[in-house]
Design brief:
13 strands; Rossmann fold; six-stranded parallel beta sheet; binds ligand GMT; 2 domains; alpha/beta
Length: about 375
């Protein structure tokens, strides 16, 4: 199949998932055409013979205060569908991708070209941004016009149904992880340099948006440090980063907390981690937690959104209520001070990650594409 994938190119979960899906589909022989405003970050590490990237570059003009991104995206989609002879268009994140895809579809239909559109809802497009009254009618319309809709968890499906008047079925297709890439590797040199006295390493990765509640991870770490030596690695970057750096200075924790910034091979960091901490306010699935579990890291997370569908309380880690810093710290201490529990949870986390293995999930997308192509020439 010739598959177009419209996504954000950044470290955000929707872009990461879309890119990993494109890579996996290309390795199965499909031709993939990414349409995005930049090369997706997870593509940066190599050359993929069956992958093409089409950049969306809005033109500026003195009249425009804001260059018209959607218009350029629609134009780019039309061009790629026509000239690369796409069979299917898969858009990730409703805003503005689903809306732009539908407009492109209408224009193409006027030229006799039919392009089925799959929209995958990822999270904040529904739980935060999409609920904004000013965009809600557009989102509802765009979702309903998609030929197929998927959501990355049952939680997100239910949220979508309760906040938008959706008149179509939503298929739940969970996030996935490539276990060939995400596996615990021996990075002892990195471990020794990070924790020279063999302190346990706790890791958090995110895009440092408010919704991630990174400050809860830091406050919970402060409580852990009152009880035992430990190190905290914070991976990623975003709007809250400098506030978090100030907080670490204020709490005098700079010697034990490292900000690593954006890391392309996050699996290297997860490989030396003893625990993964994700205190999000909202999380439709929690791909970052799944990637940690694949690297045999127990997860202590908030009981938010779809996280309980991934992180099983008492088995693969623990869940604490949103904002319950004491609960997060106690859950971490429970694991870190109990080597048998750590070992068991490491195993359980890995076994749970296998449920979401790429090979189990990707065929669901392929089957969906095929179902939309039935009866087409
Ligand atoms: O994690 C983020 O904030 C990025 C965000 C996005 O929309 O790009 O990720 C969302 O999609 C991921 C992939 O489906 C999910 O695993 C994340 O849980 C979800 N994030 C939120 O719901 C906050």
């Amino acid at each position: 199949m010739n598959i177009g994938i419209v996504c954000y190119p950044t470290f955000g979960g929707s872009g990461v998932l879309a890119t990993e899906l494109g890579i996996a589909l290309s390795e199965k022989g499909h031709n993939i055409h990414f349409i995005s405003y930049r090369q997706p970050v997870r593509l940066e590490s190599g050359f993929h013979p069956k992958i093409n990237v089409h950049e969306v570059r809005p033109r500026n003009y003195p009249l425009f205060e804001f260059p018209p991104y959607e218009l350029t995206l629609i134009t780019k989609i039309i061009e790629v569908v026509k000239f690369e002879k796409l069979d299917i268009l898969h858009v990730h994140y409703a805003i503005p991708h689903a809306f732009s895809a539908y407009n492109a579809k209408l224009i193409l239909a006027s030229e006799g070209i039919n392009i089925p559109v799959v929209t995958t809802l990822h999270g904040t497009d529904v739980t935060l941004v999409g609920k904004d009254a000013s965009v809600e009618p557009v989102i509802t319309y765009a979702i309903n016009q998609s030929d197929a809709i998927t959501a990355v968890s049952h939680y997100l499906k239910e949220e979508t149904l309760s906040h938008f008047k959706v008149n179509k079925d939503i298929e739940v297709i969970y996030n996935f992880v490539d276990l060939k890439k995400f596996q615990k590797k021996d990075f002892n040199h990195f471990k020794i340099s990070t924790a020279p006295n063999n302190e346990p390493i706790i890791t958090h990765t995110s895009n440092f948006r408010k919704v991630k509640r990174v400050e809860d991870a830091i406050y919970a770490f402060q409580k852990i440090r009152e009880k035992m030596p430990a190190k905290l690695l914070l991976v990623g970057d975003g709007p809250e980063r400098s506030n978090m750096e100030s907080l670490c200075r204020k709490l005098k924790l700079c010697d034990d907390i490292r900000f690593l910034g954006k890391v392309n091979s996050v699996e290297d960091v997860l490989s030396i981690s003893d625990l993964f901490l994700l205190p999000s306010e909202s999380e439709s699935f929690g791909l970052a937690a799944l990637e940690a579990m694949a690297c045999e890291c127990p997860v202590v997370s908030s009981n938010a959104g779809g996280l309980p569908e991934v992180n099983i309380n008492g088995e693969t880690g623990f869940l604490a209520e949103i904002g319950d810093i004491e609960g997060l710290a106690n859950a971490c201490l429970n694991i870190l001070t109990n080597p048998e529990l750590t070992q068991q949870m490491r195993k359980n986390a890995f076994e749970r990650a296998k449920v979401f293995e790429l090979a189990n999930i990707m065929p669901k997308y392929e089957a969906l594409y095929e179902s939309l192509l039935v009866g087409q020439d």
